[in-house]
Write a structure and sequence with these properties.
Number of strands: 10
CATH class of the largest domain: Alpha Beta
Distance between the termini: 56 Å
Largest sheet: 5 strands, parallel
CATH topology of the largest domain: Rossmann fold
Length: 385
């Protein structure tokens, strides 16, 4: 069953679409900010990385936490320091599992507003538990509590472009600008060289929005009730963020799941039925593709699925698999996966936007009963003994 694709009026009038569309420009602004702050950031990070045993924690709540999911392995390779992604929603309930007095720690906090109670409480708990502690706060809101309270000498606040502080409920430009900032900061000494990757990333983002938005609108008109997003490595984090975008923008009317390609085989594959859209986020690594394509072929062979979408920098051997739509941005592989990850979330954002409007919702505020809000409400913070 297929609904009629929507006209551009309802879409173009939404803040959500304006914020999705603005992202390539914001990525350029993010690079410029970091270029201008390079000396300050280098001084701060040199001090931090002077501790050979420094423990780096990438944190945030919800979408902001997923930045760490995408980034932590790349951050670890570049910094040559143990790095893990831990959500603030885990840190505040079990701080002793992650913080230790005798372990120097860099807490990298990602936050759109900087006002969520978990983010503020995590910073306070880290200060309590760690004898040697540094804070790198990457946020979109200069007026948020995280930014305003970061007055200690061992703290550095990196503000994203003002426009990255999305007005709509769903985090779009805030997610990708903070993710890109994390990628660039992790390899700061090569910032000038990496500008070529950012330039390519901008072109990729513009191509996805200009060339695939109308096709995604048509797909959103399909009568699907589930979406499964799959990704490997860093792109598993993008799969996680993509499933959240569709689920929250449709107010839970479309239920979503994410997994790795290999992980899906171990039980979760059972969720794929005739009402399911399957979205593959393909690695640019041919070795990884072998595992990914095996899984795609197994889903190709089953009758239970509605539609299959592939997203990749260049789907090198796509003739070996069947896809209803291939979203490709290049004929060759040009940029590292952590950069490609920044634009790989755009199809998920667009799918959530179009499906939200298709269902008669306001994508800027899709929660009919206000169960989810732009800044989380109703969280009590308890004193940890």
């Amino acid at each position: 069953m297929r609904s009629k694709p929507l006209s551009g009026t309802a879409i173009n009038n939404s803040n959500t679409f304006k914020e999705i569309k603005a992202q390539p420009r914001l990525w350029r602004e993010t690079y410029d900010i970091i270029e201008n702050k390079k000396v300050e950031l280098t001084t701060f990070l040199n001090k931090v990385l002077g501790f050979k045993n420094i423990h780096i924690i990438l944190t945030g709540a919800g979408t902001s936490a997923y930045i760490g999911d995408v980034l932590h392995k790349s951050f670890q390779r570049k910094s040559k320091r143990v790095t893990e992604a831990v959500a603030t929603t885990d840190l505040i309930s079990h701080p002793e599992d992650y913080f230790s007095p005798d372990k120097p720690t860099l807490l990298v906090s990602f936050a759109r507003s900087g006002d969520s109670p978990e983010s503020v409480a995590t910073v306070e708990l880290a200060d309590k538990y760690c004898e040697t502690l540094f804070h790198l706060i990457i946020t979109c809101n200069a007026e948020g509590k995280l930014a305003k309270n970061a007055t200690k000498k061992n703290a550095y606040v990196l503000l994203m472009p003002k426009e990255a502080n999305d007005k709509a409920l769903a985090m779009t430009g805030s997610f990708t600008t903070m993710l890109l900032a994390g990628v660039l900061v992790s390899d700061l000494s090569n910032l000038n060289k990496n500008k070529a990757y950012v330039d390519r990333l901008l072109a990729y983002g513009e191509k996805i929005i200009s060339s695939y938005q109308k096709r995604i609108n048509v797909i959103a008109a399909l009568n699907f009730k589930r979406v499964v997003f799959l990704g490997s490595g860093a792109l598993k984090g993008i799969a996680r963020e993509s499933q959240l975008k569709v689920q929250e923008l449709t107010d839970g009317q479309v239920v979503c799941k994410y997994d790795s390609f290999l992980g899906l085989r171990h039980g979760p594959k059972a969720v794929i039925d005739n009402d399911t859209l399957v979205v593959y986020l393909f690695s640019s690594n041919e070795f990884v593709n072998q595992y990914e394509y095996d899984l795609v072929r197994s889903i190709n062979d089953q009758k239970e699925k509605l539609y299959e979408i592939g997203i990749g920098e260049a789907l090198i051997k796509k003739d070996k698999i069947n896809l209803d739509l291939s979203i490709e941005v290049s004929t060759k592989n040009h940029i590292p996966e952590e950069y490609f990850a920044v634009c790989a979330v755009l199809p998920g954002q667009l799918l959530g936007l179009h499906k939200s409007i298709n269902l008669g919702l306001n994508p800027d505020s899709p929660s009919v009963n206000n169960s989810i809000n732009r800044v989380v409400k109703g969280v009590n913070i308890y004193k940890h003994q």
